[in-house]
Specification:
heterodimer; A: mainly alpha; Fumarate Reductase Cytochrome B subunit; two-stranded antiparallel sheet; 6 helices; 61% helix; elongated; B: mainly alpha; 2 strands; 46% helix; 2% strand; disordered N terminus
Chain lengths: 203, 347
């Protein structure tokens, strides 16, 4: 059994802070979007909680994009464009076929590289693609008086709202898939265990 | 109402007209359904003859024609007294018997003498119970007058009566509940066409709040699900959610008041009507909040969010279906993995 320390404390704290904020933001966001009678969080409570969590998520994201590129963790996010398509295909093929036939995992985790091509792309998509849209549109709500009244002939705040809704919905899909994919490690719990302790265990 | 009438005889004080039933009904906390408010800021019409507004003064000849005609001056000898009232034995409510001559002169009924409606039984003092039991036939009189007149000055109330017969007010309160329970016929006049929406909303809702006084509380009963009930009450007419949709071309609202359970609760219907309107409202609210509480509070307690601003029932359905399909796919994948795992263990 081989053990690698892949998740330093700061990264784990950042990860679990994000997880908690996502949970709060989804619960309150759904309550705001579907506001009305029923089982949802009361509107008046959901607003400040959602806004506070959104501001904290902004700070958390800024911290990551400032700190991560300067840390040793940055190397895990470097895309190998030349080998990317082949790696992606092998990874997808494994999840759609190999995983059911006990095929060997196509990617070997190492201290030099812990994220496979599919993980790299999805994290890039979430962190650099969706999160800025989510955060900017969230702040667009909060600072709407400084925005133009209309954009492309449509009320700006409506565009802001749609951008916020669409990016948050895509991130919900990301979270669902992410929660499932962490069970595809050596055992269903090994990836969760690694993010709790920092140590990745190779069987 | 019958209880009220039973207690009327020993208390009526004058020789003139009987108790103004409209005022009586309006002053009592009528045991109607618990009302609830929601949204329709765009829908409030600016003209509605169904409520008492504050329009321009009526011509002076109305006074001559109405309160100065027939036995009316004799009636008004007593009913003009400002504090002419009695306390109802059953409800302990103070019942106002005064007829404000100025209000009456401005009302649509200013041309009517007292005896035109209160036809009989007022010769005795105090007035008899049977006097107050008179059947004030608003719809019959209006039908008759509308048939005689041209130009729409007098409106046939039959369509309103048809709606009212399906109203929860009639269902809950019984036949004693009639036009004058809400509308004070001695002050009744249409809202001017050019009145502001805020005035129209306030006037309309004033009719409902005469009885549903608990709806002015910070937490109005039945509205615990509704964000900022006071703002809704100021911006939306009660009937926009609590009455069956009427003919939009008609200048008066539907009188088919719905039970609380059947009233509109769909925030989205109103709040996503137009992106531009939405933007104006949102920006206005944000500016107000920024001015009042600074940017940090505005960021945290942003009060401007408009419920349902991004909601489209179709998009909501599609997005939820996609999430459901994703979860189903994951469940199928997990199930496949589990079976593969068992196969391998058995092998």
């Amino acid at each position: 059994m081989n053990q690698l320390y892949l998740y330093p404390l700061w990264l784990r704290l950042w990860h679990w802070l994000n997880a908690a904020l996502f949970l709060v933001l989804i619960a309150t966001g759904v309550s705001l979007h579907y506001a009305g009678p029923g089982w949802l969080i009361p509107f008046s409570s959901a607003v400040p909680v959602h806004n506070t969590a959104g501001i904290l998520l902004t700070l958390s994201w800024l911290l990551f994009v400032i700190v991560n590129p300067r840390s040793s963790n940055a190397r895990h996010y470097r895309l190998q464009l030349r080998t990317l398509p082949g790696e992606l295909w092998r990874q997808l093929h494994y999840y759609l076929h190999g995983i059911f036939t006990d095929a060997p995992h196509p990617f070997n985790v190492s201290a030099r590289r812990k994220l496979n091509a599919l993980q790299q792309l999805s994290y890039w998509g979430a962190l650099v693609g969706l999160m800025p849209i989510l955060i900017l549109s969230g702040w667009g709500f909060l600072l709407s008086p400084w925005l133009p009244a209309t954009l492309f002939g449509v009320g700006t705040i409506w565009l802001v709202a749609i951008a916020h809704l669409a990016s948050s919905w895509l991130l919900v899909l990301f979270v669902i898939v992410h929660l499932y994919m962490i069970t595809t490690g050596a055992t269903p719990w090994s990836n969760l265990h690694a993010m709790l302790t920092g140590w990745h265990t190779e069987p | 109402m019958s209880l009220l009438r039973q207690s009327l005889l020993p208390l009526l004080l004058t020789l003139s007209l009987a108790a103004p039933i409209g005022a009586v009904g309006a002053d009592l906390a009528w045991p109607g359904p618990t009302a609830s408010l929601t949204t329709n800021p765009v829908a409030a019409p600016v003209e509605d003859p169904g409520v008492t507004g504050t329009a321009a003064a009526a011509p002076a000849d109305h006074v001559v024609a109405g309160l100065a005609r027939d036995d009316s001056p004799a009636c008004m000898r007593c009913h003009r007294i400002v504090n002419l009232a009695y306390r109802d034995q059953d409800t302990a409510a103070v019942v106002d018997l005064r007829i404000a001559a100025d209000d009456y002169a401005r009302s649509v009924h200013a041309g009517l003498a007292c005896g035109d409606c209160h036809a009989r039984g007022y010769r005795h003092y105090p007035h008899r119970v049977s006097s107050a039991d008179e059947d004030l036939d608003c719809t019959g009189c209006h039908r008759e007058q509308a048939g005689r007149e041209t130009g729409g000055k007098v409106r046939d109330l039959d369509s309103i009566a048809a709606e009212f017969r399906q109203s929860v007010h009639l269902e809950v309160a019984g036949p004693g509940f009639s036009c004058d329970a809400c509308h004070d016929v001695h002050r009744f006049q249409p809202l001017p066409r050019d009145v502001g929406i805020d005035t129209a909303v306030r006037t309309h809702n004033g009719v409902c709040l005469q009885c549903h006084q608990d709806q002015t509380l910070d937490q109005p009963p039945g509205h615990d699900w509704l964000p900022r009930p006071e703002r809704h009450r100021q911006a939306v007419r009660c009937i926009d959610c609590h009455a069956a949709p009427g003919d939009p071309q008609r200048q008066y609202p539907s009188h088919q008041v719905l039970p609380a359970a059947a009233s509109a609760r769909d925030c989205v219907t109103c709040h996503r009507r137009s992106s531009t309107l939405l933007n104006q409202l949102y920006t206005y609210r944000s500016q107000q909040a920024l001015r009042a509480s600074g940017w940090l509070n505005q960021a945290l307690y942003n009060d401007a969010y408009i419920v349902g601003m991004t909601r489209s029932p179709t998009l909501d359905r599609i997005s939820l279906i996609i999430i459901a399909l994703l979860l189903a796919g994951i469940a199928a994948h997990a199930s496949g993995r589990y079976h593969a795992y068992r196969r391998q263990r058995q092998a």
